[in-house]
Queue: 3 jobs
Job 1
Amino acid sequence: MTLIHTLRPLLARLPEAPPSQALAFSLNLVRHRLWPDEDFSWLADRRVRFEIADLGRGTTIGFSGRRFRGEAPPADVTFAASLADYWAIARRESDPDTLFFQRRLTITGDTELGLQLKNLLDATDWAQLSALLPTPFRPAAS
């Protein structure tokens, strides 16, 4: 039995609001550093959900009033992948397009919005933030 299978019943009982709020708070902290020229008008009053398929959990965020906000489902677009695949994407060890075509990353709902967000995240220079992270959390060297 893996750690994920052990944690899944516990996580299923927890509310989604705290992680959604934490993600929104974190994005607001780094938004101007990562995307100084992006106004996110295309994301205004829309909801995006990130589901961790193997945990059976997710977070939903929105953008309103020039700020990211934790939201409740339903979402306009939903990304779903395993925790390991999200981790590989974050560390730049896997390409989202490759995972998408392998059906390990799915985008449902408003796929145009999903692709716009995926392209923004792909084009983001995460290096300026990686120096702030503890070594195990830093992306892989290019």
Note: The chain has one domain: 3-133.
Job 2
Amino acid sequence: MTRLTIRSARFSADTPAIREQIREYIATIDENACRDEVESGLAALPAPYDTAGNGFLLAEYGESVAGGVAFARLDDGVAKMARLFVRPDYRRGGIARDLVSRALAEAAAAGHRRMVLHTLPQWHAARALYGTMAFEPIPAYDGVQVAEAVCYARDTKLSGT
């Protein structure tokens, strides 16, 4: 049986797979403002994830990309998590939790003390996941372009998550 691996993206080799995954993610977004934000990030790849303190992680089963997540410096000691996506055929297996846990660990190792993120109210599974991982609701932070976004934050180092 093939095991799940989570690794840092190698942008020269992985950019096409990341773009494909983000396009799949865009297809799930109903909100135009959110879609526009993600599409502008797609155009900028590999920036900002290819610089020190930032990252894009891929979850793989063998040669198949099952999902991914990104994080980037937002402010001093604060990183923003974005682009958490697990392909439909791989959902319900804990991959999203594993990706978030790894993103938190990588962000902490890069010197970020806090992780923020935003999602949409109708993404119930994502919101439930963040709640079980000690993320707490916060007011909108700088850079949130979607009026209806629900924002969360937590310290990057917490035990038991």
Note: Residues 11 and 58 are 11 Å apart (CA to CA).
Job 3
Amino acid sequence: MADRRLSSTLIGVFVSMAVISTVLSWTSTALIPTEITLFLWAVAAFAAVPALQINVVTFGKAAPNLVSTLNIGAFNVGNALGAWVGGSVIAHGLGLTSVPLAAATLAVLALLITLITFRQTGNPDLAPATH
């Protein structure tokens, strides 16, 4: 889907991650609902990878190998920052059920950055793929 409707895919992914993370804060006290919610979260999180990869390659056409490498590096930085935010939430005594709410906040922040980027650069949707 990301190869046809990039902006819609990224917006949908970040909205899904925010909603599912919020739901996780409610379901995290019971095993089965937590497992279902985490599965849905994983689907949404992994759906972001190809869409973001297409996005950076689209904007970095002159050096696709470089932007691909930087994109994966950015994923690693994001993982580290996410762990730091989650640890900070716990360290400040907000409780484990607050960690998904912090994740939802980060997803909303990613959505806002995405919307601002799309507005400044125009419509990033690619022409339909020819297979």
Note: Helices lie at 6-27, 31-59, 64-91, 99-121.
